[in-house]
TrEMBL record, chain A:
Family, per entry: Belongs to the ABC transporter superfamily.
Keyword Transcription regulation: no
Keywords in alphabetical order: ATP-binding, Cell membrane, Membrane, Nucleotide-binding, Translocase, Transport
Domain ABC transporter: 11-241
Name this polypeptide is given: ABC transporter ATP-binding protein
GO biological process: cobalt ion transport
SMART domains, sorted: AAA
Entry membrane topology: Peripheral membrane protein
GO MF annotation terms: ATP binding; ATP hydrolysis activity; ATPase-coupled transmembrane transporter activity
TrEMBL record, chain B:
Lineage: Bacteria, Bacillati, Actinomycetota, Actinomycetes, Kitasatosporales
Presence of the UniProt keyword Transcription regulation in the record: no
Localization in the cell: Cell membrane
Record Pfam families: CbiQ
Keywords, sorted A to Z: Cell membrane, Membrane, Transmembrane, Transmembrane helix
Organism: Streptomyces jumonjinensis
Annotated TM spans: 20-37, 43-65
CC annotations in GO: ATP-binding cassette (ABC) transporter complex
Encoding gene per record: cbiQ
BP terms from Gene Ontology: cobalt ion transport
Protein name: Cobalt ECF transporter T component CbiQ
Main location as per UniProt: membrane
Bilayer topology term: Multi-pass membrane protein
Length: 262, 253
């Protein structure tokens, strides 16, 4: 995958296996490479090991077999501060992600933990909030925002750390259609590598040219999102389902890459 | 279980009292309370003077008096305890309206009532003029250890989230025909409390995960440095400085 002389892939996972301390094995040898600038959807039913995989990407979980490297740096203990800056994880529940009393302080948390202070820090925070269209909410407590706004602020909290790769855990969950579209626009406008963990297949098709399917702890399919979603047999075997009436072939991917007009 | 009480205590105004840096106000309230509690209880007039000082602060802060007085009800449990004292404390007795009351008990009750009410009123004023977030920054600036300010900061952030959770659970209970009528239903309420505890505990773990993912190493970064000028300190000190002579006079007389 890594062309000689080219940039190291944003994410490189090799032979990753992991069993929880209670003996439950969640991953059985996962191989996944995401090139710089790619947007990849990680699809899989509940319990497939998606969250376990995500928690390995920034070294929260470790100790199993295999190796993970981010932008060429191995995820090992001595690199953890750097790795946690490079891998921006947006968790599913924004109330878990936003733990500071105001939006601004929350977005500043990551960069401040990296050692940024003063004007540089405020500039970072303002830029990240602008990227997600939440600049005018800087002084609000997160509790007073709508769910969609909180999710966008959650994205800003990791953007402020200038990550190499943005990892989104079920980004479309609990969003109404408008908030869902707004988030898609924001994600498409970012010039960054994205790994999107989801079982929202239309959202994957809309945002990610490439998808991989994780099922029972292994990657069982890797290809163009449109092709995977057209393979009914493959989806059925791994408990993935398209919403009623949704035909992936009816929406050519080229259409979806058009710049937003709204 | 009122939701958002942390924010409701704050009354938005632009006044000299609101504009003072939080750590100055905290220090002033603490000193004021110390002066009040070291006043001898026999100097009844002194407590009236303290009340007038607080009334002056209320006027300067342009706060409405009635809502503030209503907030004093928070001290009701202490009042109940104070009201018991004349009946249970041993010592010399006098008869008031046919009931035998103990004189040391009456003095004790007055002491608790007067000092607790003044202390509560000072805190209510502080809360009405200072946002919860600023209070935390002020405490941190005054050197309160980080773990304590962090815990308080999470209370500010998640109090509403947990209160919402409780409200949803209450709606779900009532939707299934539950009504808390008496002690027989307390079991259900206790289980609700248990469920909220477990949920909050699990949320705590997820929050910690999110914090570690963004480089948390045990300290919340201070983003806004608090600074106070000499003039601001002096203005904040006006309250305890005015109270001190009253206390000294009370001790001498």
């Amino acid at each position: 995958m890594n062309a000689p002389g080219g940039p190291a892939p944003s994410l490189d996972v090799r032979g990753l296996a992991y069993a929880y301390p209670d003996g439950h094995q969640a991953l059985f040898g996962v191989d996944l490479t995401v090139a710089r600038g790619e947007r990849v959807a990680l699809l899989g039913p509940n319990g497939a090991g998606k969250t376990t995989l995500v928690l390995h990407l920034n070294g929260i979980l470790a100790g199993g077999a295999g190796a993970v490297s981010v932008a060429g740096r191995p995820v090992v203990r001595e690199h953890l501060p750097e790795i946690r800056r490079l891998v921006g994880i947006v968790f599913q529940d924004p109330d878990d992600q936003l733990f500071m009393p105001t939006v601004q302080e929350d977005v500043a948390f990551g960069p401040a933990a990296m050692g940024l202070r003063g004007d540089e820090l405020s500039a970072r925070v303002a830029a990240a909030l602008r990227q997600v269209g939440m600049a005018e909410y800087a002084d609000r407590p997160p509790h007073h925002l709508s769910f969609g706004q909180r999710r966008r602020v959650a994205v800003a909290t990791v953007l402020a750390m200038r990550p190499e790769i943005l990892v989104l855990d079920e980004p479309s969950s609990n969003l109404d259609p408008a908030a869902r579209r707004e988030l898609a626009q924001i994600l498409r406008s970012l010039d960054i590598t994205v790994l999107m963990v989801t079982h929202d297949l239309p959202y994957a098709l809309e945002l990610c040219p490439r998808s991989v399917i994780l099922s029972e702890g292994v990657i069982v399919a890797d290809g163009a999102t449109g092709d995977l979603l057209a393979d009914e047999e493959l989806l059925r075997r791994h408990r993935l389902e398209l919403p009623f009436g949704f035909a992936p072939r009816a929406t050519p991917p080229g259409l979806l890459d058009r710049p937003d007009t709204t | 279980m009122g939701a958002g009480h942390a924010h409701r205590l704050y009354t938005h105004r632009s006044s000299p009292a609101h504009a003072l840096p939080p750590h100055c106000k905290l220090a002033a309230v603490l000193c004021f309370v110390l002066v009040v509690v070291s006043t001898p209880r026999e100097a009844v007039w002194a407590f009236g003077a303290y009340a007038l000082l607080l009334a002056a602060v209320t006027a300067v802060a342009r706060l409405p008096a009635v809502p503030l007085l209503r907030r004093l009800l928070i001290e009701a449990p202490f009042v109940a305890f104070a009201l018991l004292m004349p009946f249970v404390v041993p010592g010399e007795r006098i008869t008031v309206l046919g009931a035998g009351l103990s004189v040391p008990g009456l003095w004790g009750a007055w002491n608790i009532l007067a000092k607790a009410t003044l202390g509560t009123a000072a805190s209510v004023l502080l809360a009405a003029t200072t946002e919860p977030r600023d209070l935390l920054l002020g405490l941190q600036r005054l050197g309160l250890p980080q773990p304590l300010t962090q815990i308080a900061s999470f209370m500010v952030r998640y109090g509403d989230v947990v209160a919402d959770e409780l409200r949803r659970m209450s709606i779900a209970r009532r939707s299934r025909g539950f009504a808390a009528r008496g002690p027989r239903q307390w079991g259900v309420l206790a289980k609700t409390a248990g469920a909220v505890f477990i949920r909050s505990y699990e949320r705590g773990e997820r929050v910690h995960l999110a914090m570690v993912s963004r480089g948390y190493t045990g300290e919340l970064p201070v983003i806004r440095e608090l600074r106070a000028t000499r003039a601001q300190w002096a203005r904040a000190a006006a309250l305890p400085a005015a109270a001190l002579p009253v206390c000294l006079l009370g001790r001498l007389l």
